[in-house]
Task: structure prediction
Amino acid sequence: MRTNATVSWHDARIERDKLGAHCKQIMNVNGEKLKIFTYPAPVLRQKAKIITNINGDLKKLTDNMLFTMYSAPGIGLAANQVGSLDRVIVFDLKPDEKEMKKPCVLINPEIVEREGTTKSEEACLSVIDYSAEVKRSAKVLVRGIGIDEKPLEIEAEGLLAICLQHEIDHLNGILFIDHISSLKRAMYKKKLKKILNKE
Ligand code: NI
Result:
């Protein structure tokens, strides 16, 4: 997910602080910049597979995903976006360049409860040159496994809730443009065609 969401950074900071116990603060993430696949790449439409073995390869993948996310920059990235079908997302609602990074990794994430609705402007690193208002659940309870192999439960609202829903959608082959009207989507496809023809 890109960083131009309309939810306030103040709320984002509160949500981010609540993750303190799960996600350690660090100065820098070391990794390799991966290629981000963009719509209409088929991998973005595939369903990611449950991870049964948290090994060195997965740690390397998530480090590289975090590095790629910070470089983009974005606030969330799902494995499909870098061409992997491992069921894992990374995120950090880092509101300010001066703040420490707080990279979070969530393996096999699942939304177990939802409450209310909210609308906000979303954009995605895999959907070039576009943003649109999307309706989401206002609060979500998400379960998954941390990179330390410990079970994680995150009660999220505000930007964190939106980010988690956006990234978990990716793991199910869903993009934010699937949540907008068919007319808007058709207009985006037309615009994208023009962009791609210019390249
Ligand atoms: Ni996205």
